[in-house]
Amino acid sequence: MAVAADRHWWYVATRQLLADVIVGPHLPAPSADTLFLDAAGGTGATGRWLADRGTTVLDEWEPAALTLAPSASAGYRPVRADLNHLPHRDGSFDVVVCITVLYHRMIADPAAVAAELARVCKPGGVVCLMEPGVRRLRRPHDVVTHAARRFSRREMSALITGSGLQLVRSTGAYTFLVPPAAAMAVLRRGQSASDIDQHEGGLGGVLGGLARAERAVLRHVDVPFGLSVLAVGRKPGQPSTR
Known about the structure:
Elements: H1 9-22, E1 36-39, H2 48-51, E2 56-60, H3 63-72, E3 76-80, E4 93-99, H4 110-119, E5 121-132, H5 140-144, H6 153-162, E6 166-173, H7 178-187, H8 202-218, E7 228-234
Parallel strand pairs: 1-2, 1-4, 2-3, 4-5
Antiparallel strand pairs: 5-7, 6-7
Helix pairs in contact: 1-8
């Protein structure tokens, strides 16, 4: 992941998606003590756009990832942490992102983790969740990544509202990848292969171009499904006066 993050088209497109379309428009007004959380962010591959904007705590259990993350952005502050029991006080962070984590088989209860993420978010702050979509799709990449589940857009919205957050955005993404992913699920049934190892350049830039076109649409409307699904919630209450 650390090696692929700089050049694989999906990581580049996902950082842009989160920054420009999903989380970016809902960020609280920044100040000197604004604090972000990249929950279970691995090496910082998808969340470093946030660390480039301000101090970002990276909660991660894997020691190797914690060692690599600060090289992704000077803004990262790595902390070894269990996502199920975060070592942070209530209302610590202005923005909390958790990207492609809740699908994993090590997460016994996604709703409990979502509630924990909401707990550490400040009043007026935002929480963003992004997970694999199309619930019934099971493909080679899921085997490699130890996927226990995929999510519908409705389920993602329920994770947000069930945590006491106000839903401000819910949409699918990477809709153009659903047909080829479904085809590969049939053609390569029983195999295991990671998407990270394939099509790094996005078929000569084609996939990156499709992602840009989709982001232009997502700036104005939500879409009902996608190979990824995202939801953003705002914690009720007013931010504390700084």
